[in-house]
Design brief:
four-stranded antiparallel sheet; 5 helices; rod-shaped; Beta-barrel_RND_2; MdtA-like_BSH; RND_pump_MFP; efflux transmembrane transporter activity
């Protein structure tokens, strides 16, 4: 019995010693990935995509139906106001004009003849009234026929550049319900704008005059500075998603930007010059439970926590504050020990979040403090995973 007792007690004692050593010296404890608390500027932006368009463009159509007989301009043609840019086959309208002119001359002569007769008393005044009405009707028909004939010649309404031509010679255009589109003329390509679609959850943060910037795929690495020109109040709903069109200025003195280019827009709606910043990845980190990882239990006594009521809005946003949780890596003891902290956060730029003081106007963290961003097994010595050469498929 004595031997059996010894054989049972010795393993229990060894197990207890092993657990104590692991707790004291951090044997087999996990390795933490950390990031330091930084101090510097933080800029909150809204990202969106849009399309470059001329500030002023005019769609040129026609009010008459017919076949395109002549095109005098093409894409990228410089035009002046009043310049002839196209002609429609005028034969039908010329015939209508000739007929209206003949009717007008006949009605005019009849009216003039009746005026002479009524002066001599040969006919009544009612006959003159009838010929006068026919004369005025013929004049109106003549003017209408003359206008239709003149409309067969298409003139440029403004000075500019032809950015679109929608017709070809020999094509028939019909102006039954609305004027068909023949050309689009941009008045000044040096002044353009980006029409960006902003989600309804973000549009309330914007105001006219805010700083913005955008990039285009045609010029990688080049950032175009701009400002918010207008926030249109007309909503656009696509598949139950409501967006609003925001106009962004786009100066184009070298004419490198072309209409229709896709622009990636960033609008600055808030900015802090010098604040404490905590990485967002640290805010997303969740410590495994004590049963799964031999880490120290959170210590919330003393100055290691901030007891505040959570305000509405969370950590991100514009001027909103909230209570978030991070894990501070305490390196002052025999082993590194994670400590849970509750912090008050402000605006975010997507990568970092502003750290605000607590109710006592004190900061629970300082520059250089290490916050945990990830965890990996202490037995793994391979370091971060290698980047794959090929694209990730999932």
């Amino acid at each position: 019995m004595r031997r059996v007792t010894v054989l049972v007690i010795i393993p229990l004692v060894l197990y207890a010693v092993l657990k104590t050593a692991q707790a004291m010296f951090g044997l087999n404890s996990p390795d933490f990935r950390t990031a330091a608390i930084e101090e510097g500027p933080i800029v909150a932006t809204i990202s969106a995509s849009g399309t470059l368009n001329p500030v002023k463009s005019v769609t040129v159509g026609t009010q008459v139906t017919g076949m395109i007989k002549e095109l005098d301009v093409d894409f990228n043609s410089q035009v002046k106001k009043g310049q002839v840019i196209a002609r429609i086959d005028p034969r039908e309208y010329q015939a209508r004009y000739d007929q209206a002119l003949a009717n007008y001359e006949l009605a005019k002569r009849n009216h003039e003849y009746n005026l002479k007769l009524v002066g001599k008393g040969f006919i009544s005044k009612s006959a003159v009234v009838q010929t006068e009405g026919a004369y005025k009707a013929a004049l109106g028909a003549l003017n209408l026929a003359k206008k239709s004939l003149d409309d067969t010649v298409i003139h440029a309404p403004v000075d500019g550049v032809v950015v679109k031509r929608s017709v070809e010679v020999g094509q028939t255009v019909a102006a039954s319900l609305q004027a068909p589109e023949l050309f689009i003329i941009a008045q000044n390509l040096a002044e353009m704008q980006v029409e960006a679609s902003i989600d309804e959850s973000d549009v309330g943060r914007l105001s006219e005059g805010m700083d913005a910037s955008f990039t285009v795929d045609s010029f990688p690495g080049r950032v175009f500075q701009s400002k918010v020109l207008q926030i249109r109040k007309a909503p656009i709903t696509i598949q139950n998603v409501v967006t609003y069109t925001v106009l962004i200025s786009a100066d184009n003195p070298d004419l490198k930007l072309l209409p229709g280019m896709t622009a990636n827009v960033r609008i600055i709606y808030d900015k802090r010059e010098k604040v404490l910043k905590v990485p967002n990845v640290a805010l997303r980190f969740r410590m495994p439970s004590a049963d799964d990882s031999p880490v120290a239990k959170p210590s919330l006594s003393g100055n290691t926590s901030v007891s505040l009521r959570t305000s509405r809005g969370g950590a991100g946003g514009w001027g909103s504050t909230g209570i978030r949780k991070v894990w501070l890596l305490d390196t002052g003891g025999l082993k590194d020990k994670p400590i849970e902290l509750k912090i008050r956060t402000g605006m975010t730029d997507g990568s970092f979040t502003e750290l605000l003081p607590d109710a006592d106007s004190k900061f629970p963290l300082k520059v250089g403090d290490l916050v945990i961003t990830g965890i990996q097994s202490s037995g793994s010595k391979e370091g971060p995973p290698k980047r794959q050469n090929g694209p990730r498929m999932f």
